[in-house]
Amino acid sequence: MPTASERVASKQGEAQPEKEENQNSKSSVRRNSGRVTGCKNSSEEEVPGDVLEVLSGQNPVAVDAFIRHCNLNPDSYITVQPRGTENCLLDSPINALRGPVKLKTFVELTMDVASASPRRYFFEARILNAFPQVETLASSRSSLNNIATLNLMVLEDFPSVQIPFEWLVQLVPPLKTRAFSLSSSPSAHPNQVHLTVNVVSWTTPFKRKRTGLCSMWLAGLDPQESKGVHIPVWFHKGSLPPPPSSLPLILIGPGTGCAPFCAFVEERAVQSASGSTAAVLFFFGCRNEDNDFLYRNFWLSHAQSGGVLSEEKGGSFIVAFSRDQPQKVYVQHKMREESQRVWSLLSAGAAVNVAGSSTKMPSDVQSCLEEIISKESGVPKESTVRWLRALEKAGKYYVEAWS
């Protein structure tokens, strides 16, 4: 992604109902709205489809415990000389750490002390220091191969480990930004950004509680704090370019994949207030209507008579509730039911935008589109693959997926 402007955002949030993914994992989705202030380093304004990179803070208790277990002096000063730009952003606080800086500040801004996915040799280095005997090392390494634990937890489990700070800088995973699709249109919400954040917590096989670093940190901020909450953020161009108002749209966004399409619909609504706009057909999916129907009122209001998603304007809002009946129903099932409508928009030059999980969903949606094109146009299945490739080359087929 190109380098983008750095801004400081203050967070305001409201929670959606919590949903349970499985026995050991729970997540809730929150829409966080932030007022954007500060200086802009580029003349380019953000648009629907853009991405916001957020550098989260860390739990101060975890940072203090990490420093204590490593026998470091938090008030000592160190000199930072980065060797490269890997895992760094050009205008980030990380690169601003030139010259002497407090050790605690460096740890807070650059070292993910509670990472859920530490590097393999991070374990091995600690074991080598704690257990120099070959036989002990072999047995310990074998027992640790299947453990997914926090770096801080490793230090707590092996208190005899002592590693030089120069090694820690290389061994501890860097604190990385997290990317979120904009859930709002700047035209509808000037000087604000809205994000859809999945707040995740889970329990490991060893009965330890884990949480998502950035999402849990955002959820824990207090928007009523008198001094405000300042968050380092960067705007980037996303995978979904903003469509012109005259372009018909077929949107497929199950779960939090609906986030960028909130921005698309808001933008199209602003455009429709001053002129004609093309049809928008949106397929949304979630597990249960009562538990995780994200932005229910928002979508339904725009699907009413005269709205952006209304049938009166040639579009529609169609939902698949996968767990509300014995047989699972996903967005591709609803697409097949609406195959004539989908083909009609495709024939009229519509663009297809897909957003959501990068597991099976994007490929399932593509297969479904191939079936629809073949069925409605009468062309062989092999020809539909070329048809979709041509659509992609024409800039009318985009996928934004994440793991």
From TrEMBL:
A matching Pfam family: FAD_binding_1
List the record's Gene Ontology CC terms alphabetically. cytosol
Keyword check for DNA-binding: no
Q: Name one GO molecular function term.
A: FMN binding
Q: Which UniProt keywords apply?
A: FAD, Flavoprotein, Oxidoreductase
Cofactors needed by this protein, per the record, are: FAD
Asked whether the UniProt record includes Flavoprotein among its keywords, one would answer yes
This protein's source sits in the domain of life called Eukaryota
Q: Where is this region: Disordered?
A: 1-44
Q: Where is the FAD-binding FR-type domain?
A: 29-243
Could you identify this protein by its name?
Answer: FAD-binding FR-type domain-containing protein
* Protein species of origin: Tetracentron sinense
